[in-house]
UniProtKB/TrEMBL annotation:
It is found in: Cell membrane. The chain crosses the membrane at residues 12-36, 79-101, 113-133, 161-187, 208-235, 270-291. This is Multiple sugar transport system permease protein. It comes from the Bacteria. It comes from Peribacillus deserti. InterPro entries: ABC_transporter_permease, MetI-like, MetI-like_sf. Belongs to the binding-protein-dependent transport system permease family.
Length: 296
């Protein structure tokens, strides 16, 4: 039986070592430190941090505490965004992948690059572009509406248009990533299955339903779960585009956590809220593992 030499083990460990160092510095240590902070009354202006145990967590579930409203209102708005955005991120991403896969060879690369380019820019650039397009008074879209003698739309200052604007900007920004994942999955589907379906008289729609979708089911589940997790972590789009308005109707959970940490200076409360949000992410990850590992 072949035994791995110590030199081979050392070489493998050296390849993994940079990742482990970065993981420890930028993820593991901050998580542990954040958990420690969540157990204290941690005021930024007070050098003394009193240990309070689980009190910060209890305040989140205490209906008489302002932290309860702050957390669950933010969570509600975050869930709204997830409900609005995730189906589109999955369906439109798959639709674009199917469309691009049906194009001739040269055009595939051109359109794949065009749709993926927005994913490579930062959220601040995305916000600037869509603010320029959707500003109520000077936005390009409302200017065209005025030329056509149509009423202007308060894209960023009224509901439901504020959510529509945030979802559209997010879709434009991130859809390229899901599209590329779906394209790779579609390329792995055996052509023999399509040929057999054609010989049996299956239409394009039937081949999509009975061959394509079952074949890429693991990828669809992956895209669904990762899109949900990414949507839960929304911050930049509502912060830069609507500032949480109108009122606080688009103020998501991460915005409330940041405000609690740096405006109210209560890092203990903010850390407790962050870890509660992390627990939601863990539950989603567990569901992802259960679904993807389930036997067909």
């Amino acid at each position: 039986m072949y035994k791995t030499s110590w030199k081979s083990k050392l070489t493998s460990s050296l390849f993994v070592l940079p990742y482990l160092i970065l993981f420890t510095i930028f993820l593991f240590i901050p998580i542990i430190y954040g958990a420690w902070m969540s157990l204290h009354n941690w005021d930024l202006l007070n050098p003394v941090h009193e240990f309070v145990g689980l009190k910060n967590y209890m305040k989140i579930f205490d209906s008489s505490s302002y932290l309860n409203n702050l957390f669950f209102e933010g969570l509600k708005h975050t869930l709204l965004f997830v409900i609005f955005s995730v189906p589109l991120l999955v369906v439109v991403g798959l639709g674009l992948a199917l469309l691009i896969n049906s194009l001739p060879g040269r055009l595939k690369g051109i359109f794949r690059t065009m749709y993926f380019i927005p994913y490579s820019v930062s959220v601040s650039v995305v916000a600037i572009i869509w603010l320029w397009l959707l500003d109520t008074n000077s936005g390009l879209i409302n200017q065209y509406l005025q030329v056509l003698h149509l009423p202007i739309i308060p894209w960023l200052t009224d509901l439901p248009w504020a959510w529509v604007s945030i979802v559209i900007a997010t879709l434009w920004w991130t859809i390229g990533f899901n599209m590329v994942i779906f394209i790779n999955a579609l390329n792995d589907v055996s052509e023999e299955l399509y040929e057999a379906g054609s010989l049996d008289g299956a239409s394009r729609w039937q081949r999509l339903i009975y061959i394509t979708l079952p074949s890429i089911k693991p990828t669809m589940l992956f895209v669904l779960i990762t899109s949900t997790i990414a949507s839960f972590n929304i911050y930049g789009q509502p912060y830069l585009m609507t500032r949480g308005g109108p009122g606080t109707e688009t103020k998501v959970l991460l915005m409330n956590i940041v405000d609690e940490a740096f405006k109210q200076r209560q890092l203990g409360n903010a850390a407790a809220m962050s870890l509660m949000m992390a627990l939601i992410m863990i539950v989603i990850s567990v569901v992802q593992l259960r679904i993807t590992n389930r036997k067909e």
